[in-house]
Amino acid sequence: QFHGYDELPQLDDDGYSAEEKKRISQVLKAQGRSTGEFALTNQPDTLMLYYLLTPKEVYHILGTQLGYDIQENEVEFLRKNFAYYCQRTSHMQALSFTILAKVGQMCWRQDYVWDWFMEAMKTDLFNREDNTHLGVHLGHMAATLDIVLSTFVGLKRGEDQDDQSVTIQPALPRSWNKVKYKWLMHGSWYSFSVTKKKVRISLEATETLSDRAGHICVGGNKLVLSPWSTVIVKYHKLSTMKEFYEVMDKTKFIRQSIVNCYIDESVTPAIQIQIDALRHALVALEKVPVTEAGLRQVALDRKKRINLDLTYEIEELKKDLCFLTEGDQGLYSQKMRPAIPDFDALVAQGKEFLGGEDCWFQNFITDRDGTINNYCGRYKSSIQSAYNSIWLSLFCTECCRNPVILTAAPLQGMIEVSVNPDNTIVYAASKGREFLDLEGRYQTAPMEPHQKQLMKSLNLRLKELTSKAPYDKFALIGSGLQFKFGQSGLSRQDVTGSIATQESEDVLKAVRTIVEEVSPEGGLLVHDTGLDIEVMPRLSEESQEESATFHKGKGLEFLDGRLGLDVARGPNLVCGDTSSDIPMLEAAMAMCPSGTYGIFVTTDKQLVGRVTAVCPRMLIVPSPDVLVAILNEVAKAKLKGQHRLDSFNSDPGPGGYMTTHCPSPPAGSHHGKRSPSFLSGVFSPLPSSATL
């Protein structure tokens, strides 16, 4: 779009009828206005880039060739642009719906894809634009056929020019049972029959057998067919590490769309499409072969298979499906009470500790993994569950002014595994030295410009290195590829020794070569732990000591100054689960000794003693599920109850519990965004009769 487009006001179309919206350009013209006065386009021109190029190609052009500093990965970047332009498109052009249908499938918005496909089909059949008598929209009609093949059948060619392979990843609409078609590929005619469980492929006729002919890949199976032969493949199969992460990435965006529907109080029967998609993901994970030790086994590459503990991924999907069909009470009774002794008593205790319906905090500062999110064996697949996000988001919008997740993980990694609604929580990563504020602005601690440029160049080269074989596997093991503030890392081995020694040494050598090329004058240091390769700028002795001693407490102080959290004002709620979280508790206590409260998730008696010594107003719970359930129940009580204006009493009651309630929120807070009807939308199960 043109410069200044994002500063234009968004058109409020609530006052227009459905017919007027379809011809909004003419309606505005009759009113003496034009679409140019608003952030409004006739068709999603920017998103058309993704129709023509892959997300990886768009990301490479913007980030590498044009030099834009993009914090998200390519799919998250696509999702944000998709959401932005969907709200600002009037669909005055026929191709608008086909573009959105195809791009919507790329970020797994199945709830949108079918509706837009049907709208596209109506263009000439229903004479939507009142011009079919002049001729049909032939290019648009071809685009609808492309949606059938590329989106519903999932027919995709290799991304590289030399890659002649074809992949089929079906995602048939709920009302379709089968798609049959013929395809001319490499001089040969193939016949395809695609159902929801299997793909039948026949090589019917061969005109020329090209030397460059590639294979067909279905469900992780690479097929090369002989003339007049037929192969049937079941495609709900997950066999490689790469496919595993692809499935988990899909669940991230599916969960994100579900959360947005619940938070926006727009739960409709169409959400059943997303629930079905989560069920398919669960089936795929449960079908991964199991070893005698109870681990799941997948292929890392053509030679090596590795074992995975998928407990987190499978159990969180089961919890989500339970929540989405049975509501929060169903999740409590079926999943949490059986697994957590005294669950109800712990939640009631926590609800009392936080003040019940009068709970209010100036700042909610929490760690992520092990605190508000259950632990996972791999950070890259620790996708936040939908129920967790809904409960957490409700607490953040109703019971606190400044919600902050403060972790040691890299910011990009945290964004990639979180499904919370945009602009709801401050994401503070690298112990607080980089963060996204509530307006989505990226900010960091100070760094020398030449060092920042060195790290940017290094990160681009590391991305390029791990995008292709044989080094792509190193982004899939251990910590993978991580870009923290002032430090980049790449795993070269995992704790189970999945990588051959020579291959591990080869990637270390490749990284050292990149470092020498990026900074021949020695401005970057390489530290090898044996498992991970860490690269960071060469600092002065004073700066190096400061960086080595930087902890979450200093991170909180930095955030307080940069974001104006006003920690000294209080009240503050600090949550953590390990000794690395104690510094942020100490920092909050130093700034607000009488108004800081803590909840720690631990069963370690020594840690309990340490945190209660720092903060006497402390509650100990045994698991993250208990903590988020407490936050859920407090937020629900807040919505149901009347806000009190009592003064905040900082003195703890018996057992360290809060004896009086928090005051009503000050002006300018998040509070008040939800209506009481939100409770029935979020916490009641989806009607069992819901269908498309």
From TrEMBL:
Coiled-coil boundaries: none
Location of the region described as Disordered in the Swiss-Prot/TrEMBL record: 645-674
Listed SUPFAM superfamilies: HAD-like (SSF56784), Six-hairpin glycosidases (SSF48208)
UniProt domain Glycoside hydrolase family 65 C-terminal: residue ranges: 162-208
GO molecular function terms attached to this record: hydrolase activity, hydrolyzing O-glycosyl compounds
Any Gene Ontology biological process: carbohydrate metabolic process
Trehalose-6-phosphate phosphatase helical bundle domain: residues covered: 240-329
Xref: Pfam families: Glyco_hydro_65C, Glyco_hydro_65m, T6PP_C, T6PP_N
Domain Glycoside hydrolase family 65 central catalytic, residue spans: 1-145
Stretches assigned to the Trehalose-6-phosphate phosphatase C-terminal domain: 364-627
Family in the record: Belongs to the glycosyl hydrolase 65 family.
Protein name: Uncharacterized protein
Species this chain originates from: Eutreptiella gymnastica
